[in-house]
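Inverse folding, one chain.
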């Protein structure tokens, strides 16, 4: 990458290791297929079509690639879940919904390097035996949809998509399907329901694991944009070499989206686990704003549990011993962040300094999740609304101390009681914020709140009748 020039002010940080974002903000780069081919594009597709499909899956398994959409599930293992005796069509879906607050990586790929995604999708479809693929794209990406449509048309003209791709006998059609702007469509079964033209109510798993019963009740592989792009690079360097990037069980690179109270917010592609939280925030992102100090971080998108910057953790090592970590010592990998009580999620790192009022943060998140609940499950539909109303009272100074406990109780009544993980997504931030900032929230309440006292009396009178 030393010979690649980037636009002024857009140069990668020295700690970055760019694979997926190699062409993002690159000087002289455009989205045309001519530009992509001039840089060696589609060479990995040509190589992959000369391999057996199972051999590609094995390379992906050896690479250790974990899904970059949030769950971090091993991609090759997911591909292997397609029933061996399957007689139905197999579908591949690219999840380009990217609706997790704090996450903004996939849109750069589809805006600036669409052919990388197409190449990764064609290789992946060949590996899993899919002849139809969909890019499910959120409605808020109108320009990206046009770019992708143009790129697919260009790829079809060059026989990288369509019938008998490059004379291999393999057929694949790729379609762009635009969603209607619903957070729940980022959940793979909700996405599938939407793609079928129905209300995006997530399905119960089991039995509706997409690899067995997905789109039109046929085997379906759903992968994130970034995950599919990695497949091209795994073919280029081989699974073992790819696995040498990052750390064990957390291989390759991933894109971290840093927003909030840092001097240099933005996107950074780094080897997984090779930098710590402190190195990310202080070295790569330039530290806190002048006169401020870091207070808390949400490490994996808004549904991840908040972490305080003055915390320390005791976690288990693989050999059974224990180690002590401060917040700033935490490696940016899936397993360590999970061991510290949160999750790496989609890579959306949301930073808050000492100017942020935690009750406002809590209320902001509650408003989002109350708005985005699909309404299928009663605990989530009703509970997310109750959490929003209670946090409204806290930020407006109309709450009593008991409201904080009630808010926590509601969150735990949602957690684990819904069809999909949206229930946890809405409740985990509340549980973590109350656990770590309870005293601050209670300090904003009053035992003598006349409004709530009158309301409470009215409710008690109604109940007694």
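Residues assigned per position:
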């Amino acid at each position: 990458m030393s010979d690649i020039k980037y636009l002024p002010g857009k140069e990668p940080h020295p700690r970055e290791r760019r694979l997926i974002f190699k062409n993002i903000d690159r000087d002289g780069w455009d989205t045309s297929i001519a530009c992509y081919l001039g840089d060696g594009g589609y060479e990995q597709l040509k190589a992959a079509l000369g391999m057996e499909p199972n051999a590609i899956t094995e390379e992906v398994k050896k690479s250790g690639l974990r899904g970059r959409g949030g769950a971090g599930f091993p991609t090759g293992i997911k591909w292997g879940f397609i029933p061996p005796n399957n007689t139905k069509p197999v579908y591949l879906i690219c999840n380009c919904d990217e609706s997790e607050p704090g996450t903004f990586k996939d849109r750069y790929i589809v805006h600036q390097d669409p052919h990388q995604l197409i190449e990764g999708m064609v290789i992946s479809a060949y590996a899993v035996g899919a002849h139809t693929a969909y890019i499910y794209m959120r409605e808020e990406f109108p320009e990206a949809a046009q770019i992708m449509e143009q790129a697919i048309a260009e790829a079809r003209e060059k026989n990288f998509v369509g019938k008998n791709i490059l004379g291999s006998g393999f057929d694949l059609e790729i379609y762009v399907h635009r969603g209607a702007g619903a957070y729940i469509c980022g959940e793979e079964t909700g996405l599938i329901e939407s793609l079928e033209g129905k209300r995006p109510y997530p399905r119960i798993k089991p039995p509706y694991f997409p690899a067995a019963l997905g789109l039109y009740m046929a085997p379906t592989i759903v992968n994130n944009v970034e995950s599919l792009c990695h497949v091209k690079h795994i073919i280029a360097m081989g699974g073992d070499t790819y696995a040498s990037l990052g750390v064990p069980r957390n291989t390759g690179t991933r894109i971290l989206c840093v927003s909030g109270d840092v001097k240099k917010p933005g996107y950074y592609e780094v080897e997984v686990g090779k930098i710590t939280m402190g190195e990310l925030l202080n070295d790569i992102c330039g530290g806190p704003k002048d006169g401020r100090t870091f207070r808390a971080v949400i490490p994996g998108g808004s549904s991840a549990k908040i972490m305080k910057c003055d915390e320390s953790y005791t976690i288990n090592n693989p050999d059974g011993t224990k180690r002590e970590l401060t917040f700033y010592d935490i490696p940016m990998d899936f397993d360590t962040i999970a061991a510290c009580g949160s999750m790496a999620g989609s890579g959306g790192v949301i930073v808050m300094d000492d100017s942020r009022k935690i009750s406002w943060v809590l209320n902001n998140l509650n408003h989002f999740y109350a708005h985005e609940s699909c309404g299928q499950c009663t605990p989530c539909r009703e509970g997310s609304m109750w959490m929003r109303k209670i946090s409204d009272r806290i930020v407006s100074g109309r709450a009593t101390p008991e409201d904080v406990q009630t808010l926590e109780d509601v969150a735990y009544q949602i957690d684990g009681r819904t069809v999909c993980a949206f229930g946890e997504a809405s409740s985990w931030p509340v549980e973590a914020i109350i656990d770590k900032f309870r005293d601050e929230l209670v300090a904003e309440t009053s035992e003598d709140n006349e409004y709530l006292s009158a309301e409470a009396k009215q409710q008690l009178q109604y109940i007694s009748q």
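DSSP finds 17 helices and 13 strands in the chain. The two ends are 75 Å apart (CA to CA).
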